[in-house]
Design goal:
Layout (H helix, E strand, L loop, with lengths): L2 H4 L8 H6 L3 H23 L4 H4 L4 H10 L11 H4 L3 H9 L3 H4 L3 H13 L20 H18 L6 H10 L7 H18 L6
Helix pairs in contact: 3-5, 3-10, 3-12, 5-9, 5-10, 7-9, 9-10, 10-11, 10-12
Length: 203
């Protein structure tokens, strides 16, 4: 699919209106992923002293913004099953028109676009859409990826699956499916996340 051919489907120049056009389940998912990733990023900076790796003070802002619109490309998919693996690149293409509305610095705009475009890439090179490996996946993308997986597993768990099992399943995939540092930060920040988790409708 060529994103340029489908961009006319989205008829708005207002980024907030664009996000509000998400179907309710997708909107709620994106909101939770943004909050999870922000908490993990803040925890990484404040408690794990990862300022050098994360790029400093605005890292959490970048992670939150990128995560809030990580599934933007799904708005343009006509067939969710056949075209699913194209949604990251489509989302990044669409977001180019809005990046200046999101954040002021060009370097940070690039980081937000990377988060959208690469959030399904994996350190082992088996992700999509570009099948790149850990050396090419920025750490801010890793935070969004692990938060995205956390939310999917929380919302799809059956009543007999406990949270510890979900965290353990993510931990087992550290270094292969997920960034090891991002997983470490998730496990460490879980107490902060769980305070919010009980308040949300995970439908």
């Amino acid at each position: 699919m060529n994103p340029e051919r489908k961009i006319g489907i989205i008829d708005t120049h207002d980024f907030d209106a664009l996000l509000n056009s998400f179907p309710p389940p997708l909107y709620r998912h994106s909101h939770r992923v943004a909050i999870y990733s922000f908490i993990i990023a803040e925890h990484a900076i404040k408690f794990l002293r990862l300022c050098d790796l994360t790029g400093g003070k605005r890292f959490s802002e970048v992670v939150h913004l990128g995560s809030s619109c990580h599934d933007l490309g799904k708005l343009l998919l006509l067939d969710q099953d056949k075209e699913y693996k194209e949604h990251p690149s489509i989302g990044a293409y669409l977001l180019k028109d809005y990046k200046k509305d999101l954040i002021d610095e060009e370097e940070l705009q690039t980081a937000v676009l990377e988060t959208v475009n690469l959030h399904h890439e994996q350190p082992n090179g088996n992700g999509f859409p570009n099948k790149i490996n850990s050396s090419e996946i920025p750490i801010h993308v890793g935070f969004c990826s692990v938060a995205n997986a956390l939310d999917h597993r929380l919302t799809k768990k059956d009543k007999d699956t406990c949270i510890d099992e979900i965290l353990e399943s993510i931990k087992r995939q550290a270094g292969t499916v997920f960034c090891e540092i991002a997983v470490e930060c998730l496990i460490s920040a879980w107490k902060c996340i769980v305070k919010r988790y009980g308040e949300w409708d995970l439908e």
